[in-house]
């Protein structure tokens, strides 16, 4: 039994299917296949959206925003590469924030809290040390 969802074909195999020897034939890799795992950048300079290195970011609900931002950065000719892509990256970030289960954010709030606690601790320790010096 198989059915197609989007670009993927889903096949259900039974125990019996696994017990019979495979009749699949291996076909030599086609060096001109643009979807073959050739890394992030294809020989012609295009982005390989199927590269496993992208971790599936090019698909999903924010795939188009990711592709737009990444393409902009890749083809950017600005002195600070990608500095002309702020709007695309903002759109991608806003989209990803709508899907926290799919795109977990690195906890910036925790990092900010840790650094602010560290900063708060420093002046208190410094003023306590001054008081000790003054009282001796």
UniProtKB/TrEMBL annotation:
Protein name according to UniProt: MIA40 protein
Residue span of region Disordered: 18-38, 100-136
Entries under Pfam families matching the protein: CHCH (PF06747)
Chief subcellular location: mitochondrion
Residue spans of biased composition, Basic and acidic residues class: 111-120
GO biological process: one example: protein import into mitochondrial intermembrane space
Organism domain of life: Eukaryota
Compartments where found: Mitochondrion intermembrane space
InterPro entries reported for this sequence: CHCH (IPR010625), CHCHD4 (IPR039289)
Source organism per UniProt: Corythaixoides concolor
Gene3D superfamilies on file: 1.10.287.2900
Gene: Chchd4
GO molecular function terms noted in the UniProt entry: protein-disulfide reductase activity
Repeat as UniProt keyword: no
Acidic residues compositional bias, start-end: 27-36
Keywords: Disulfide bond, Mitochondrion, Oxidoreductase, Protein transport, Redox-active center, Translocation, Transport
GO (cellular component) term, any one: mitochondrial intermembrane space
Domain CHCH: from-to ranges: 62-98
């Amino acid at each position: 039994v198989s059915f197609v969802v989007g670009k993927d074909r889903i096949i259900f195999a039974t125990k019996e299917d696994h017990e019979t020897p495979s009749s699949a034939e291996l076909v030599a890799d086609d060096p001109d296949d643009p979807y073959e795992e050739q890394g992030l950048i294809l020989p012609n300079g295009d982005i390989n959206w199927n590269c496993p290195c992208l971790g599936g970011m090019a698909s999903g609900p924010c795939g188009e925003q990711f592709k737009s931002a990444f393409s902009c950065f890749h083809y950017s000719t600005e002195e600070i590469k990608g500095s002309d892509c702020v709007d695309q990256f903002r759109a991608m970030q806003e989209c990803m924030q709508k899907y926290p289960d799919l795109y977990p954010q690195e906890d910036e709030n925790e990092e900010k809290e840790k650094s602010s606690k560290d900063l708060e601790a420093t002046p208190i320790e410094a003023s306590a040390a001054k008081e000790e010096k003054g009282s001796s």
